[in-house]
Amino acid sequence: MEISEQRIKEMTTAGLNLIGQALSIYDDKLRLVVSNKRFQEMFDLPEALVQPGALFSDTIHFLASRGEYGHDQSVEDLVSVRVEQALAFEPHYMERVRPNGQVISIEGAPLPTGGWVAVYTDITSTKRVEELLRSRSEELSDQLLSHAEELSASNRQLAATISALEEAKRQLTEIEARTRMTTEMMPAHIAHLDAEGRYDYSNRRLSSVLPGRPSDILGLHISQALGAHAYERVRPHLQQAYDGQASVFEFTEDQDSRRIRVSFTPDGTGGVYIMSVDITEETQARVALQQTRRRAMAAQMTSGLAHDFSNLLTIILGMQAKLEKMDLPEDAAELVAATQQTARRGGQLLNRIADMTGNRTPQPQATDMRGLLEDLRVLASPSLPRGVGLSVVNTLPDEALMLDPGMVQDALLNLVLNARDACGSSGQITISAHAIGRIWVEITVSDTGPGFSPDALDKALNPFFTTKGSKGSGLGLPMVYDTVKLAGGDLQLRNTPSGASVMLRLPYRPAPPVQSGLALLVEDSDDLRHQFRDMLVDLGLSVIEATSADEALALATSLDDISLILSDIRLEGAATGIDLIERLNAPIPTILMTSLPYDDALHRRALAKAPVLRKPFTRAQLSALIRTEAAS
């Protein structure tokens, strides 16, 4: 059972109150940290001066004002001298007689973090006994009396020192426990190696950074904890740290292809501190940002050129159209037709360049990969020759992923068509998809064609490089590469024993589950309302229904647990689903639905307020939109 910090303080104070001596602890700013009841009683201090945070100077001022230190100096001078002595934080021992005749000893010891602990002991009776012994034992030598006094003082000093050491030990133990708890909560592996490369400290987070590695690694050599392959990657950097130079580097681990950043820092005594962090998501975001910046630069460079070339092509086509109407020889007519065809092809190329450098921001949404790949197969099959087969092998987990389905499907269709051209009149195209851990989605399009030439492997991702002669633009693979990089992924070209393959690697980001809760369904058609209700119930939601915006607003105002509103745009009465959104006191996730065309003014107004589903729609479309709203 855990003990609260307040309870610990109460127990500590109770323990200090059992000590017969007065005790006080001040921090490095001369603020009271803790004192016991005997401290207040000995000096008859008011309650305010024994509360944590009370100033040492205020306590000295109070005592000096009562004549505790005599009347030879002014109160302000006494306070100034005592504060200056206290700020020196030096060990000291002294004895003094109070105005009431009480004799006390004061033992002060500095703390490691600044401040000091002081122990006040009533030695009045001890002094009286010493005087009695001195008066009755004149036969004892002065040397014996001196030794007795020194022994008595040493004992008192030892008792005070022990109290201070115990308090310091308690504070150090508490600091160490808090430090360990903090490091174990951090999303990184923090450790220390001794001079021989063995772990003598670890926050037990190695397995969260490097899957498959142990968490309990104290006493293990780093090569045993990391495994031979990973150790060989870090060994040169580790040796650099043992040689006295800090090292920060990144590497990709083998199991899940995670990107890991490691810092080795010499500790100055022969050991090395280690911090390892999984930066896979950071790397994916960095790749996407870099691609976005490159595209922006490319767009800036090409937009002006594309505009000028477009104008030139327009002039050429206009002039060729005039020439076409003239009575020209047959050879000249063929040249005019060829010029027109070339100019049109130039226009198509400019359009492809615009597509490649234009604003193509990914719009991730909950995507069923099984459905996307099946739709791709249906979409691509009619464009394949009779002798070319297309198969899909999907071993991805059965869960929705956050991807831009349009961009992914366009990229894969582009690769399938390239594979078709490579196969010619016969062959096989295979699309395979699988997960690498829960870090990457890997999709490979392979074919049984002749494979990539060495030149193509080196240059195929460069814009305008093509092996199709005049039939190719050289922008297909670069656009696929652009799509993958915008998503934070990667693309690789390679030859296989049976042909060629293009591998796409995209970040594995599961869509958030459809949350259970209460949905408000607003639809004035009984038949449609029952159909939409069944969809929502199948998705795990409870449903209440309304037929007008006014009725829905009353329900939304009176119920606090509505997690979703699904409303038609046009409803009974004058108010619309858009009016419902505008009248809500608190924002509730809302999806509008309609059968109105896109160019209808009400439809366009609705798109500015909330996501809109076109009727008819499927349960999968509704589910994906709800998941996308939850993710945003």
Annotation keywords:
632 residues, alpha+beta, Beta-Lactamase, 5 domains, five-stranded antiparallel β-sheet, 20 helices, 22 strands, 22% strand, coiled coil, kinase
Please explain how this structure is put together.
With 632 residues, the protein is α+β, with helices and mostly antiparallel strands. It has five domains: 5-127, Beta-Lactamase, CATH 3.30.450; 184-282, PAS domain (Beta-Lactamase, 2-Layer Sandwich), CATH 3.30.450; 297-357; 365-507, Heat Shock Protein 90; 513-628, 3-Layer(aba) Sandwich (Rossmann fold). Helix content is 47%, strand content 22%. It has 20 helices and 22 strands. It has a five-stranded antiparallel sheet with strand order 2-1-5-4-3. Strands 7-6-10-9-8 form a five-stranded antiparallel sheet, sandwiched between helices. A five-stranded mixed sheet has the order 12-14-15-17-16. Helix 19 (601-607) links the parallel strand 21 and strand 22 (612-614). Helix 13 runs antiparallel to helix 15 (476-486). The protein is elongated, with a radius of gyration of 41 Å. The two termini are 39 Å apart. The mean pLDDT is 79.
What is the CATH superfamily classification of the largest domain?
A: Histidine kinase-like ATPase, C-terminal domain
The helix content is 40-55%
Q: Beta fraction of the residues? A: 15-25%
Spatial separation of the terminal alpha carbons? 39 Å
Mean of residue pLDDT values: 79
Shape: elongated
Task: Kindly give the count of domains.
Answer: 5
Described by its quaternary structure, the protein is single chain
Unreliable stretches: none
Could you say what the CATH architecture of the largest domain is? 2-Layer Sandwich
Rg, alpha carbons: 41 Å
Strand order of the largest sheet: 2-1-5-4-3
